[in-house]
Write a structure and sequence with these properties.
Largest sheet: 10 strands, mixed
Distance between the termini: 31 Å
Strand order of the largest sheet: 19-10-11-13-9-14-17-16-15-20
Strand content: 35-45%
Structural class: alpha+beta
Shape: globular
């Protein structure tokens, strides 16, 4: 039995020594800056979450992540169980938060009662013509060049020092369900894709992925959902034209099924654009998968040795 059941991942935090350079990258990536000064930049995506990415001035690095609780009552239950204080969340949208530290020392924030942001407009979606259906007749299809329209933060991946210890910590507090567990053998598992438990409400195949990495704990990547496949490819072109560093893609994953496109920010942190991922309910259970499944693609290039 978990203390609470979170609704979703909310935001990621980083540090960077040059906020102007990071702001330029965030624009190329498709995030919208909503607050900026000489110490931090706060950005949002196009959905109702008021905060998606926070970067503070400092030595480059991953600084933590935040989850969204369903209510203030849940936040109070978590705070009481963990013996920590509830405090105001100092970011656009306000609300309240608690701060925890996971087994590898990562900051994990949980927020509630934020004021939603007004959704940003998405590009119009012209029908696709295929052999199965020809829904666009007597007109052309044109897509406007520019950055991807990032809709939301979809998941975070962490390298951990002890998979079972981290899995127990996150499940006990936040109610995660395993979608696919990565097993090297029947006796040894090294990671798992974890989804939120929202009952009968379909949710992403994974909101958090934990992977025991022989190089030790740390940030692996954060993944942002974009409008659709055209939007993902437009973002790919924008980042390429801007001289940004590509990591992996474009392709379609096996586990989670999403179309992916990975890039590095100016300090080497991997950020993903994705679209068309799997959705499951709590009743859909859990599966075992192999390391080959984890790295496998349905189409697209093989994973580079630098990935993760």
């Amino acid at each position: 039995m978990s203390i609470i059941k979170i609704e979703d991942v909310a935001f990621v935090r980083f540090r960077a020594p040059d906020l102007a350079e990071m702001r330029a990258f965030l624009g190329d990536f498709g995030l919208v800056v909503v607050e900026a000064d000489d110490r931090r930049i706060v950005s949002r995506a196009g959905g109702p979450s008021p905060v998606t990415h926070i970067v503070e001035l400092g030595e480059p690095g991953f600084a933590g992540m935040g989850f969204r609780a369903a209510s203030l009552d849940d936040l109070r239950a978590l705070a009481e169980a963990e013996g920590v204080a509830i405090e105001p969340f100092d970011a656009p949208g306000g609300g309240q938060r608690v701060r925890l530290t996971d087994p590898d020392g990562h900051l994990v924030e949980v927020v509630a009662a934020q004021t939603p942001a007004p959704p940003l407009p998405l590009p119009g979606r012209e029908p696709w013509n295929s052999e199965r259906a020809h829904d666009r007749l007597r007109r052309t299809k044109r897509v406007a060049a520019g950055a991807s329209h990032v809709v939301r933060l979809g998941h975070v991946v962490l390298n951990v020092s002890d998979f079972r210890a981290s899995e127990a910590w996150y499940k006990r507090r936040f109610g995660f369900i395993t979608s696919d567990e990565i097993a090297l053998s029947p006796q040894l598992s090294v990671g798992a894709f974890l989804r939120c438990d929202r009952g009968e409400i379909p949710t992403d195949h994974h909101t958090l992925f934990l992977l025991q990495n022989p190089k030790g704990p740390g940030f692996n990547h954060a993944a942002f959902e974009v409008a659709d496949l055209d939007d993902l490819m437009l973002g790919h072109q924008k980042l390429q034209d801007a001289g940004r560093r590509a990591e992996w893609g474009v392709g379609r994953h096996l586990l989670g099924s999403q179309v992916f496109d990975y890039w590095r920010d100016p300090w080497g942190h991997t950020l993903e654009h994705w679209t068309d991922g799997d959705l499951f309910t709590a009743a859909d259970g859990s599966n075992a998968a192999t390391l080959q499944d984890l790295l496998g693609v349905q189409w697209g290039p093989a994973a580079p040795p630098t990935m993760g």
